[in-house]
Amino acid sequence: MSVSSSQSLLFRTANPYEKLFGYSRAVRRGPLIAVSGTTSIDPVSGQMRHPGAAYDQARAIFAEIGRAVEALGGQANDIVRVRMFVTEASDTDDVGKALKESLGDIGPAATMIVGARFVSAEMLVEIEADAFVMQ
């Protein structure tokens, strides 16, 4: 769902943390789309998907990031930067593989930080993204 707020377009989902903490999944202002830290919580049901599987969580997250960017008028190839937060060093190869499979042709700037802790122990990966939409 996109709603307008001043000069920003907002994209919100059923993720319970969005409502609880008062943020949007993604915000577009001008050509910039900023996608909030995204986990593998199902955007419709609000339930956690793929507990214990970092690769599957990352694939689901990249798909949700793509949906958020598209909902605000962008495309996957507009994604210019991703920030990946991973709880365990042993999961970095799986998260990197998911990045390459999801956005490898685009080649965004990327950072991966290991040792993160999230609001739920089931969350192994959280990813943020920025997109720049050329008109």
Descriptive overview:
With 135 residues, the protein is of the alpha+beta class. It contains 3 helices and 7 strands. The chain has helices at 16-21, 54-71, 92-103, and strands spanning 2-5, 8-11, 26-29, 32-38, 79-86, 109-114, 125-132. The chain has a 7-stranded mixed β-sheet, with helices on one face. Strand 5, helix 3 (92-103) and strand 6 form a beta-alpha-beta unit. It is globular, with a radius of gyration of 14 Å.
Q: What labels describe this entry?
A:
7 strands, 135 residues, 27% helix, single chain, 3 helices
| Average residue pLDDT | 93
**Class from helix and strand fractions:** alpha+beta
Instruction: Tell the overall outline.
Output: globular
Distance between the termini: 22 Å
Largest sheet: 7 strands, mixed
Kindly report the spatial arrangement of strands forming the biggest sheet: 1-2-3-4-7-5-6
Compose a concise summary of this entry.
It contains three helices and seven strands. The chain has 135 residues and is of the alpha+beta class. It has a seven-stranded mixed beta sheet with strand order 1-2-3-4-7-5-6, covered by helices on one side.
Write the layout of secondary structure elements.
Layout: E1 2-5, E2 8-11, H1 16-21, E3 26-29, E4 32-38, H2 54-71, E5 79-86, H3 92-103, E6 109-114, E7 125-132
Parallel strand pairs: 5-6
Antiparallel strand pairs: 1-2, 2-3, 3-4, 4-7, 5-7
